[in-house]
Amino acid sequence: MLEKIIKILGWVVLGAAALISVLFFLMPSEAPQMQAAMDALDGATGADKIAGVDAAAAEWGGFIMYACEFLAILCAVMFVLFGIIGIVVDGMGSPKTLIKPAIAIIGIVVVAIIAWALADGIAPHTIGIQKAGYTPGDMYGDIKLAEAGLWMTYIAGAAAILALVYGAISRLWK
Is the pLDDT at 151 greater than 90, yes or no? Predict the structure, then answer.
């Protein structure tokens, strides 16, 4: 039954993506208006450019982009939800099947904790950091979150490389 639900939802998402693709080519493009607004800002000062871009962005509809973002979030939610449902359903039938997913989930949580500990969240002393709304040297939660995401990526990449090296060496010994 779960497979049928997943298949039906997959076809619905695929159909929505196809419809959005067709609308991309049929809807009138907002690019000329955006380009005209950007051309009008040539030679303006920094504050005037920021205000002009803000005004142009406020007029931009962006239906295709928002629809694609919605589909991406929907797919991510379905991926996680059906993954959890699959793990639980398999675990009810045979509790031994829960061991590998539990180890993977615990590993991800441990890597997230390590990455969070490594991230400092301090705004760097770089050119233009004040324009982004930060004071150099102060700590910010969003910077810490971004750094933690980067550290998770670095750790996962290093683990992947180590796994490849281990796999290649272990084949040599067989």
Answer: yes
